[in-house]
Amino acid sequence: MRFPRATRLVILVSGTRAQAEALRDEAARVLAPMGLRLSAEKTRIAHIDEGFDFLGFRIARQRKRGTQGQRVIYTYPAKKAVAALKAQVRSMTRTAHDQPLAVLLHRLNRVLRGWATYFRHGVSKATFDYVGQFTWSRVLRWLHRKHQHAGWTWLRRRYLPRWWPTDGEVILLRPSTITVSRYRYRGRSIPSPWTAVG
C-alpha cells in the first residue's frame, strides 16, 4: 500500500498528557515499518480546550451559548484558511480592470462557492457573512479603479441593484446563502469491533 508523502492524522485521548505522549510514541513505532515517520515540527499535543487546527478547520471545546457553563466541541474555519481566501480575493480584485465585471464575478463566485462548500460542515455562518462583506468591499474598490471618473450614484445604479454587485445575469455569490449542515455525533450508534473488557 502506498501512502502520500504527507499524511495528516489526529489521535484523540481521554486521559493525561503522559498517556498522550505514550500514544504518540506508540504511533511512531507502528508507522515506522511502513516507511512513515512523525514530523517533530508538526506533531503537537494540545488540550481540547486550547484547540487545534486540522485541514483548515479550528477544533476546540468552548462554552455553549445560552447555557450555564455547558461546554461543547466546535469546528469552524481556522484563521489561516480565512486569511488564505482573503489573499486570493485581494489578488483577483487588484488587477484586470479592463475586463467586464461579469468576468470578475464568475471567477470570484467559483472561489467563494468552493471555499464555502468545503467549510459548510462547521460553525461557519458568521465567517461566511464576514467573507461576503469583505468580498463586497473588494469588488467596490475594483469598480472605483475601473471607472475612476464615475460618481458613486452612477456606479450604484449600474452595478449595485439592491446594493449587491451585479453585471447582467451574473451576481456576486453571497457565501451566507450556502446551507450550513453540521455533522451529528453518531459515535454511540457505530458498532465497535472490539469486545468490552469486563
- Order the strands across the largest sheet as they lie in space: 1-2-3
Please give the radius of gyration in angstroms.
23 Å
User: How far is the first residue's CA from the last residue's CA?
Assistant: 36 Å
Assess the beta-strand content as a share of residues: 5-15%
Helix content: 25-40%
**Morphology call:** elongated
Describe the structure.
The chain is 39% helix and 11% strand. The strands form two sheets. A three-stranded antiparallel sheet has the order 1-2-3. With 198 residues, it is an alpha+beta fold. It contains five helices and five strands. The radius of gyration is 23 Å and the shape is elongated. Helix 2 packs parallel to helix 4. The two termini are 36 Å apart. Strand 2 and strand 3 form a beta hairpin. It folds into two domains: 61 residues, no CATH class; 99 residues, no CATH class.
Q: How would you sum up this structure in a few lines?
A:
The protein has 198 residues and is α+β, with helices and mostly antiparallel strands. Helices cover 39% and strands 11% of the residues.
Secondary-structure blueprint of this entry?
Layout: H1 17-31, E1 52-54, E2 57-63, E3 71-77, H2 79-92, H3 101-118, H4 125-146, H5 152-159, E4 166-167, E5 170-171
Antiparallel strand pairs: 1-2, 2-3, 4-5
Helix pairs in contact: 2-4
